[in-house]
Design a protein that fits this description.
By secondary structure, this protein is α/β, with parallel strands linked by helices. The protein has one domain: Arginase, Chain A. The protein has 11 helices and 8 strands. The chain has helices at 14-19, 26-42, 55-58, 64-72, 89-112, 143-151, 169-174, 224-242, 269-281, 296-312, 348-365; strands spanning 8-11, 46-48, 119-122, 158-162, 181-189, 211-217, 246-250, 286-289. Strands 2-1-3-8-7-4-5-6 form an 8-stranded parallel sheet, with helices on both faces. Helix 9 (269-281) links the parallel strand 7 and strand 8. Helix 9 (269-281) runs parallel beside helix 10 (296-312). One of its GO terms (cellular component) is histone deacetylase complex. Residues 48-309 form the Histone deacetylase domain. Pfam families: Hist_deacetyl. Belongs to the histone deacetylase family. HD type 1 subfamily.
């Protein structure tokens, strides 16, 4: 039996699953949270109990007026149309912050225990759209920013990677002038929310050059292989300029083909697992967050595939299956493989065009010396 990584911990909370059952969250998270919770338990990952004492950290990023409005649960200019407040919203959003900060602290504890490159995962985290005084994109409190601030109490330099289908505008804005946090975002671009993330957005002042955007035209549906060709040179360059002490990665299961909101790229879970494997190879403490995703079985499979990539130190085989001990296994039938499988083949001509598009994106994004195809 293959040895599994011992310095890998997952924050798994039934309380968060139950708090996501609000009618206002049904489309976004409810079924996906339940399936993910069940699958991670069936995979026998090391689980960490949720700590709930991080509320004071919220005010280190969000404004006092915004926090008050969120607690009052009344519509106002702080809340965009897609992110109106509802009963229990502050408690729900605060629990997400608690989860990410618990994972951040466990990462610090792992280093203190003598592990050079521990990994923690909190799948419900990654609400990367929230700004200091604005909720949009189904994000009310920016747990990513708050978690990074927490990590910087121990790790001065942070590399933040984001492969969610949507640009992480809230995280970018928080660190746009900060050279100690390098942000890298691979995202669909064009007529896609939040309509930001051009390659010309590179940071300001001391942070100039520490913001890297890799906009993928929304009409270009990259395959697993094409996503790898695009992401690896960018990540190598990002490590070079960031010189990070720790890495934070928001995954995004909405990149998988067939997502009901985004339609995804032409990718499977393997595209993201390749990124995870690369980040592991760099030997830095790593915090993994789930981000978006709107097809429940794909979201759960992404969480499981990422967890297994970390546990095994390699991307699971394509024929790997979900554990038979998962009580929700019937929800996946007949597709019980761990990886998502759905892709389409549009022929060699289109594949060649997409590879050329990858080359074009890299030319726009990276200096010449950093391009490696």
């Amino acid at each position: 039996m293959q040895e599994r990584k011992s310095d890998f911990w997952c924050v798994v909370s039934k309380r968060i699953v139950e708090s996501s059952s609000s009618e206002a969250l049904t489309f976004i998270h409810t079924d996906a949270s339940r399936l993910t919770y069940s699958l991670l338990r069936a995979l026998h990952v090391n689980r960490v109990k949720l700590n709930t004492f991080y509320e004071p950290l919220i005010a280190n990023f969000h404004t006092e007026e915004y926090i008050r409005a969120l607690k009052e649960e009344k519509p106002c200019t702080f809340f965009r149309e897609d992110s109106q407040p509802f009963p229990g919203i502050y408690e729900y959003a605060r629990l997400i912050v608690d989860g990410t900060c618990t994972a951040a602290d466990m990462l610090i504890d792992g280093v203190d225990m003598g592990y050079p490159a521990p990994v923690t995962l909190f799948w419900q985290g990654g609400r990367h759209h929230a700004h200091a005084d604005l909720a949009h994109g189904y994000c009310w409190l920016n747990d990513v920013v708050i978690g990074i601030n927490r990590l910087q109490e121990r790790f001065p330099r942070v590399l933040y990677v984001d492969t969610d289908f949507h640009h992480g505008d809230g995280v970018q804005a928080a660190f746009y002038n900060d050279p100690t946090v390098t942000t890298v975002s691979f995202h669909a671009f064009g007529d896609v929310f939040p309509f930001s993330g051009s390659e010309t957005e590179r940071g300001e002042g001391p942070g100039l050059g520490h913001c890297i955007n890799v906009p993928i035209p929304s009409t270009v549906r990259l395959s697993d292989r094409e996503f790898e060709l695009l992401s690896m040179p960018v990540l190598e360059y990002a490590f070079e300029i960031a010189n990070p002490d720790v890495v934070v990665y928001t995954v995004g299961a909405d990149t998988v083909l067939g997502d009901p909101l985004t339609r995804g790229y032409n990718t499977t879970t393997r595209a993201i697992c390749n990124v995870v494997q690369y980040l592991l190879s760099r030997g830095k403490p790593l915090l993994l967050l789930g981000g978006g995703g709107y097809e429940p079985t794909s979201v759960a499979k992404m969480a499981g595939a990422v967890a297994e990539t970390v546990s095994l130190g390699m991307v699971p085989d394509n024929d790997a299956t979900l554990p038979v001990t998962d009580r929700n296994l019937d929800k996946y039938r007949p597709h019980v493989q761990l990886h998502t499988q759905r892709v389409y083949d549009d022929g060699e001509g289109y594949r060649n065009k997409r590879v050329k598009k990858v080359e074009e994106i890299l030319r726009q994004t990276l200096p010449e010396k950093a391009r490696k195809m």
